[in-house]
Amino acid sequence: MSTDKMPVKMPVAVITGAGSGIGRGVALALLAAGYRCALLGRRAAALAETIALSAHPQNALALPADLSQAEAVSAAFAKLIAHFGRIDFLFNNAGTFGGQAPIAETSTETWDSVIAINLNGAFYCAREAWRQMLAQDPPGGRILNNGSISAHVPRPHTVAYAASKHAITGLTKALALEGRSLGIAVGQIDIGNAATDMTADMPRGMLQADGSTRAEPVMDLRHVADAVVMIANQPIAVNTLFVTIMATAMPYIGRG
User: pLDDT digit string (tens) for 163-217?
Assistant: First the structure.
């Protein structure tokens, strides 16, 4: 009898918001680490650019979708499951900042759009991944939600963003509780000032709690990607429930 081991299929990761910023960096890092990856996001061209940057484009699948719409999320997940057959890891990353304005000047449209992507979209994606993780053989998997420093301490004049990210912490805790008897590990990564298009203004100056405007340091995106890959590679018996990664000198502890 042959002692050769049966080939092990590459694990499957789903990355939302994979067309730019943190999502793109994490998608590229997971592809380099040996994952098959489904890339979800609103812009087909941006997802194609991410895949083109990888040394392993054959292991990537682009799935353009409006993640604020439950039906669009369901359709995208149906396609990725038909293509890959399972889900081992979901990086729930897609988000929008919504700008800075006092609450009196924050429009209903801004509030609704931020909540729709940052919170509703995260819930829709987690729900679809959850259903598949329960049904697959072997069952189980891991979900990592992208929170924020603002999930703990808000920036001035960011009511919609701060509320949405505080809500992500509640989502993480609820799913971690529900998943621990089902072989589904759920955690959250809170990121401070990774260098992306969203943080491009930070070195030029950001409004602070004392009313001043000061430059803030940023860190290389690769450190965030490395942290996500480390968490993705953990055995399912281990859960990184919360982790914060940030530029060392950014104003967080003692903010205000």
Answer: 999 999 999 999 999 999 999 999 999 998 887 777 767 777 777 777 787 777 8
Task: Give the residue carrying structure tokens 């943080």.
Answer: 199
Residues known to be catalytic: 161
Q: What is the pTM of this model?
A: 0.91
Residue 256 falls within a domain, yes or no?
no
Q: 183 in the Ramachandran plot: left (φ > 0), alpha (ψ -120 to 50) or beta?
A: left
pLDDT mean for each 10 residues of the chain (256 residues): 51 97 97 98 98 97 98 98 98 94 97 98 98 97 95 91 97 98 97 77 74 80 96 97 91 71
**Does 251 map to a domain?**
no
Residue 252 domain-assigned (yes or no):
no
Residue 13 CA: distances (Å) to CA of 120, 159, 213: 20, 31, 39
Could you please report the per-residue DSSP string of 52-83?
HHSS-GGGEEEEE--TTSHHHHHHHHHHHHHH
> Which residue stretches of 192-242 are H helix?
221-232
Q: Beta strand 206-207 with 184-192: parallel, antiparallel or unpaired?
A: unpaired
Q: Report pLDDT for 207.
A: 72
Q: For residue 2, tell me if it sits in a domain.
A: no
Where in the sequence is the domain holding 155, given as residue range(s)? 12-246
CA atoms within 13 A on the CB side of 156: 12
**Domains held by the chain: number:** 1
Tokens at residue 26, please? 């994490």
Residues in the chain: 256
